[in-house]
Amino acid sequence: MKYSTSPVPSRSNSSLLGIPSRTTSPLPPPISQKADCMSATNKSYKYLRRFVKFDQMDFEYALWQMLYLCIAPQKVYRNCNYRKHTKSQFARDDPAFLVLLVGCLCVTSLGFAWVLSLGFGQCILFLLYVVFVDCIFCGMVVATVLWFVANRYLREPTCDSDVEWGYAFDVHLNAFFPPLILLHFIQLFFYHALISQNWFISSFIGNTIWLIALSYYIYITFLGYSVIPGLKNTRIILVTLPLVFLFYVVTLIIRWNLSISLVYFYHYRVL
Asked: Looking at residue 36, what DSSP letter applies?
């Protein structure tokens, strides 16, 4: 006999065994879910081990994320809760996104090497700086600061789970990609012809690109932390947007071209 209405979902196996449920989903927990979460060391080992196993990386999904981070970043973070329900963690366990990001940095660095008129050795040094210092090292610093602030000041007292450091680093990588496209790719097409000139319109266009890039970074970072159920007052991250806009106005008033300063910084760093 068919049910006239949907049957009441059964209690999850974890509840029957006396293990606290990790989610409010009526679905049973995934097969891979255990009573105890993997430690951060085990998660890191699993993540790093996949760097040499390209056949296990989902590059198609990573490309989808990159596209929607530029046009509709909200859609990317909707999947975070799905990952939490299926894999018991918000952080990625697949390094495909980082691999593609490094690939993009390699391509855009060639463009900057042409703009800066760098030699082969200087180009390699520049690439190492951009990948390991600007992206990874600075990203680890930013992720650590936001991870500490989120767990110390934004987490609800009743929340029994904390923000994963790996997820904080993922948020940085997500927020880093659109500014990378704006500052390391699109900007290069206009640099010699327009942005590098000593005109007000040059400063306006160059600094406006910076304003959009920094606003993207802040907004995507806000989205990353706002989807975590146990966090409160995540809108405080958006407080930095008016400060960025104020800085943008000041740079226009004093005619400080940020794009030229970036190129000078890159140029003298590899000399």
From this structure: S
User: Does residue 218 contact residue 240 with C-beta atoms inside 8 Å?
Assistant: yes
Angle at 218 between CA 213 and CA 224, to 5 degrees: 125
**Cβ atoms of 202 and 196 closer than 8 Å:** yes
In angstroms, the CA 61 to CA 67 distance is 10
Which amino acid is present at 122? Q
Name the H helices within 9-72.
13-16, 40-49, 59-71
pLDDT along the chain (271 residues), means of 10: 44 39 46 46 58 74 94 87 70 87 93 87 92 94 96 87 90 96 93 92 96 97 91 93 97 95 88 68
Tokens of 25: 């989903």
Integer Rg of the chain from CA: 22
131: Cα separation from own chain's centroid? 14
What the block records as the tokens of 177 is 């990609």
Phi, psi of 231, deg, nearest 5: -100, 145
pTM: 0.80
Q: Which of 171, 168, 43, 184 is nearest to 102 (CA)?
A: 184
